[in-house]
Amino acid sequence: MHPSIFRAYDIRGVYGKDVTEDDVGVIGNSMARFLKEDKVVVGRDVRISSEGVARAFINGFSRTGKDVVDVGMVSLGVGSLYAWKRRLPFAYITASHMPAEWTGIKFFCSNGTGFMEEDNYKIRDLSLEGRIVDKGTGRVENEDTGKVIEEYVEFLLSKIRPRKKMKILLDCGNGAACVVARKLFERAGFDVDVLFEEPDGSFPNRSPDNFEDPLTVAKERVREFDFGIAYDGDGDRAVIIDCNGSVLTPEQTSYIILEELIQKEEGPVIANVECTKVIDIIPEKFGREVKRIRVGHTFLMDAVYREKACFGAERAGHYVIPSIFPTDDSLAVSYYFACVLSSRDSDLSEIAKGIPSYPFKRVNFECDDERKFMVMDRIKERMMKEHENVNTLDGVRIDLEKGWVLVRPSNTSPTIRLTMEGKDEQSFEEIKNRFSAIIEEEISASEPNKQAEQ
Fold first, then answer.
1. Domains observed in the chain
2. What letter would DSSP give residue 235?
3. Of 206, 192, 453, nearest in space to 338 by CA
4. Which of 101, 226, 316, 324 has its CA 20 to 30 A from that of 383?
């Protein structure tokens, strides 16, 4: 078992190469040893490997004598609500938006928050010992998946309903959203059509990564609808598409949600350090604070609960509305978005045009895993000497007079990312050129032959 499969937010790797079912059995056993609770809820996404991986996890967990409730193939939100209502921890077999050959596991506490970095690493350490506790088989209960989905739909319908009928295109991408999206939106009274509705773990029609995929079919078909929603592989990230085929940014989506939500709910807004200043506009209007956090959905959920926030958002398309749903579930939030939009007279494209926008871009620089953190240390030291407004919460964020930049290492790839926003095109180009040159210079200086010369 390779330690690299244990990430800050989850466990993830290529099935059969990085992660085997034997590995997962050990991880399941380790989670049972780590937990105080005597029972866990287990769900899985649509991947071809997920049924076998879930079975291996359940077998490893139950060998400790602890019990399992298997809710079957569900979206992440469906499984997490079931566990949250019963105050049980939750293990979800998924690789989220990664390619079809990947597998993984996400862990959640009984209050719905994801395991924090230190908890994932405690399970890592137990797993790397390779020891199996065998106290006899715990009870494995196979829950009726249909009832679990119905409970989820009824929960959301009890929270909010649309004010008028709208035509919505749902792009499920053959992922886990397939099992519930149509039922939720139709039961609410929307007129719905669904693209790629059959669960298929090979993802034959588009990538499970709804942010990187061009969503060509959805952008063309959505012209017949009021708007569209595209989901990722496990249904925890959503992309909103207007009737002209334009994709809203996460900040634009948040802006529309907050216009209504912030008038009804108390508390600050949580946004990670990558989010643009557009997310600050509505909270500032109502005198609310926007608190910046590290990138990662576990940090988002933790901060929303800790700060008693009314809303939380990540640039990756994770959103939390705690008054509507206890976890960061994109199906729940996109349903809330649809209900908010149903009360507006203007169509989505017109509303989006009225939201301020600023030049924004993310650029990736290749830097191998062995060097990227050393390079980041050098950049951090340099930026703290050269600038006043420096935030080192997650990477290095520098707030400038005419924009901001964020430099941070990727948690999942050999990459250093530069994210930047300018007040206008000229400022943006100046920022991009200046900081790109700094990163390239530091990466070059870290190469072994350059270090030897020094």
1. 3-145 (3.40.120.10), 159-353 (3.40.120.10), 360-453 (3.30.310.50)
2. S
3. 192
4. 316
Q: How far apart are CA 160 and CA 215, in angstroms?
A: 29
> C-alpha distances in angstroms, 178 versus 45, 82, 89, 233?
10, 18, 24, 10
Evaluate if residue 155 carries a pLDDT over 70: yes
pLDDT at 414: 86
What ranges in 135-195 are assigned the alpha helix state H? 145-157, 181-188
User: In this structure, which amino acid lies at residue 409?
Assistant: P
DSSP annotation of 233 reads S
pTM: 0.91
Classify burial at 269, counting beta carbons within 10 Å of its beta carbon; exposed 0-12, middle 13-18, buried 19 or more.
Answer: buried
Sheet holding 227-231, edge to edge: 191-195, 167-171, 227-231, 238-242
> 419: which strand partners?
362, 406
Could you give the dihedral angle defined by the CA atoms of residues 395, 396, 399 and 400, in that order, rounded to the nearest 10 degrees? -140
The sign one gets for the Cα dihedral 63, 66, 67, 68 is negative
Q: At what angle do helices 181-188 and 330-341 cross, to 10 degrees?
A: 30
- Per the DSSP assignment, residues forming a β-bridge with 254 are none
C-alpha 320 chain-centroid distance? 10
Euclidean distance between CA atoms 92 and 185, whole angstroms: 24
Could you give the CA distance from residue 416 to residue 86 in angstroms, rounded to a whole number?
Answer: 41
**Contact call for residues 182 and 197 (beta carbons, < 8 A):** yes
Calculate the average pLDDT of the chain. 94
Residue 343 C-beta-side C-alpha neighbours within 13 Å: 12
Contact 109/355 with Cβ under 8 angstroms?
no
What's the CA gap between 313 and 301, in Å, rounded?
Answer: 9
- Asked if 358 and 276 touch (Cβ cutoff 8 Å), the reply is yes
Q: Which amino acid is at 66?
A: K
Tokens 């879930």 sit on residue: 54
Closest CA to 49 of 37, 40, 57: 57
pLDDT, tens digit, 9 for 90 and up, residues 341-393: 999 999 999 999 999 889 999 899 999 888 999 999 999 999 999 999 998 98
Residue pair 104/19 in contact (Cβ under 8 Å)? The answer is: yes
114 Cα distance to chain centroid: 11
Query: For the purposes of burial, counting CB atoms within 10 Å of the CB of 24, is it exposed (0-12), middle (13-18) or buried (19 or more)?
Result: buried
What pLDDT digit, counting tens, does each position of 202-252 carry?
999 999 999 999 999 999 999 999 999 999 999 999 999 999 999 999 999
